[in-house]
Automatic annotation (TrEMBL):
Region feature (Disordered): 265-286
Top-rank lineage group of the source organism: Eukaryota
Annotated protein name in UniProt: Amidase domain-containing protein
InterPro entries per the UniProt record, alphabetical: Amidase, Amidase_dom, AS_sf
GO molecular function, one term: catalytic activity
Amidase domain sequence ranges: 178-372
Amino acid sequence: MGLLRAAGVVYKPVEQLDLGPDSNEIYVEADIKAPRMGGLLAKIFAWILESRIFGALAFYILKRQNRVHKFISNATVEEPPMFVPLHPYVDLDEQEVIEIDSDASPAERVQQAMNCLPLTSENSLDAFKFSCFRRWTIADYSRAYRNGEITPLKIAERFIDAVHESSSRPLSIAFFINYDAEDILRQATESTLRYERGAPISALDGVPIAVKDEIDCSPYPTTGGTKWLHKVRPCTGDACCVARLRSCGAILVGKTNMHELGATPSGINPHYGPPRNPYDPSRISGGSSSGSAAVVCAGLCPAALGVDGGGSVRMPASLSGVVGFKPTFGRIPHSGVLPLNWTVGMVGVLAGTLEDAFIVYAAISGHLPSHEPTTLPWFNDCNEEIRLCCSNAVQLLCERYNWKTVEVTIPELEVMRLAHYVTIGSECSTALSSHLENLGRSEFGWDARVVVDIYGAFNSNEYIKAQKLR
């Protein structure tokens, strides 16, 4: 392909970039050429990519059309590569900020988080029984258990009935890949006994929480949405984040459905069925943490765990109308999580409310630094309705805390997206390489098969340059 070599960009050293509001850096809009494919078209495309004759040409065209050659493959970058996204933290002099003690136990951190929240109404839940649908929050569960209005065991029984009903026709929502009614009832019984003794562990005691099937959670296998991965990588216990929730008394109710290997944002799984959107079962709930978003959207759990490497928590949260939170790298230990994209994929939280996401994050987060880094949100490249909503939220924060907005320029945003895609693709391909040699590609669904083929087309030169851009 030497004769067709695309010219590469020469990037300035970072110290020469003007990041101010009057910068002359050019904003390059995204131009993604990746049509949605399924059925026969996906099979034909997979055959082309895996063909010795046509595959190399197809990959070359795909990379060129999506500007990977221009911005990554043939680019000149002076910076050294960065393989783990760790940055120094900046001390901030913030007012009205309460820090959660990182050295406290998960249950103690949950209590500290609860203390940060405004007092909730102590009204009995009977007040809501004649009203329309209402998601229970973690505070609702905790209050109802303490007041003896209901028990974790009764909640577990209703949960199991609801999952069974939603899995049957005409709904067939496919929330879960695996759930064990006996194990759920066992956990609920233990929690009920703790409340009867007046000794709940935390506000999460007896609260149902679901786990994406990319995270180890005993007694379930971890499939990653496949039919084979759990056979070559057995689950031997809880992931660290799951163990922390369990130590708070939460009821782990099963492994939620997901897009196979987290490959695309639709969330549709050819092996376990599509996790449908509870608002409209004819629509998707988004992916790849599709089941986690749907189970929270339906009100079956106030919160669920997902994993986000490129929007896999945030996109299904958006499509399902719930809160999606992807923490900063390193805030939640990654042990016990499938290593599909270990430097960009983080355990995240899907919840019905911002407060519930905060409580779960307090339980599962690891050792935090004394101060968090400065955050500069940027949201101009989006739908006008979203931009106005974000701008109004920033304005309210400015008025409440006497903050001010700072105009900045973020250069090379499209380049960052492509560098991210090369990174996540290379890491996923590497994580699966030994299994692919033994299994081949016949165990994959067709859309995941196409994605894995494309991921495997990135070479070491492109990966290293992506880390330089990082």
